[in-house]
Amino acid sequence: MPAIAPPSNGDTIRPDISLANWTHTMKRSVLRQMLAVVSQPGILSFAGGLPAAELFPTAEYAEALQRVLADDNRSLQYGPPFRPLKRHIVNLMRQRGVSCSEEQIFITTGAQQALNVLANLFLNHRGSVIIEELVYSGIQQAIASKQPRILTVPTDLDAGIDVEAVEAHLLRGERPAFLYAISEAHNPLGVSLSLSRQQHLIRLAQQYGVPIVEDDPYGFLRYEVEAALPMRGLDSDWIFYVGSFSKILAPALRLGWMVVPEALLPKLTVIKEAYDLESSALIQRSVSAYLDAGYLPAHLQRLREAYGARRDAMLAAIKNYFPTGTRWTRPSGGMFIWVELPGQVNTAELLWTAVDEYQVAFIPGIAFCASAGTTETASSSNADHCMRLNFSNCTPEMIEEGIGRLGQLLHRTT
Ligand SMILES: Cc1ncc(COP(=O)(O)O)c(C=O)c1O
Predict the structure, then answer these.
(1) Residue finishing a domain among 279, 295, 311
(2) 215 within ligand 1 shell (Cβ under 6 A)
(3) pLDDT value of residue 394
(4) Which of 50, 112, 338 to mutate to test the pocket of ligand 1 (most atoms within 8 A of CB)?
């Protein structure tokens, strides 16, 4: 009989345990690593994409949760997607200019799960996808296990995805499994996709048969009267819409949705079951009860006012304190401003001085670059001198203070 090996100390994996091939090329999320380092007490952080905790509707949600727990023990049971919640989502979608039916709503455990499920639906092993050069890192994680060929396109900081670059890929004969886009208040760039670019993208999707995964977690957080609407309002065949309660209620609820053709729901259900069987009945019912009580419009109004003021404070502070030659986006909504610094400054290096000496943090642009090595770039982007700043999680006073400190550092180094 072979000797029983002593228990390992947990720090290493036995060499004879083989992991799936794709895990060997897996990169640790640069973003997560940085967030872990900069999230120390005493640091004024513009790094995370966090909503303001002091604005969570805690009392109203607690009341809705209490009511659901007291009235309905199915809230703690396995159960099918909660129909009344779908009805509320249809109403929310109407506010985003999208007309759809309850049958087209698919409830997910956050938008991130929706991206994973859609990646599984569309993408073959080593298939290709089109994403922007600077992109929400969660989409890369959602597709990583398929080891895809990533075709990238640049983004114009005023009008969104470079649609000509998308077309160039398609004209070269590429037929990606899907294109990933954020129509309004892009993460990390803060830009919204202009209507003419939306229409052009949809024409390309129709002509070349390429589905578009439209991620819209920030669409309800807009601070301008004239805001972009999602592409799903213009096309219901090729646009696969993803929404989320994370930024408008709370991320810990882990509740999101898709708007998709009804005929796909059986397949999506099977894919989702592999992840978590179903989204929590308790969360679905309590969010639905919160919406029944009519709390959301006033809450959204509060968020828009507070975040709008924070955005304005940050835009003004960047203008006042950052060096001449700095460029930045003016987001119509969402949580982020993208900053391009003049000169040769490297923001990944600068971060450590910012944290150590100035107690202020941001995310360097490099953290959002579509992963090098697996990409076929339309034109290479240089994010070394860029940073993403979050404005939702600090008060205007903290923003003034923190951007002032960053300005001092930048004047020292640029
Ligand atoms: C663009 C984008 N998509 C998806 C997500 C994930 O959202 P959720 O919390 O609903 O999973 C985020 C979270 O920050 C995001 O910024």
Answers:
(1) 295
(2) yes
(3) 96
(4) 112
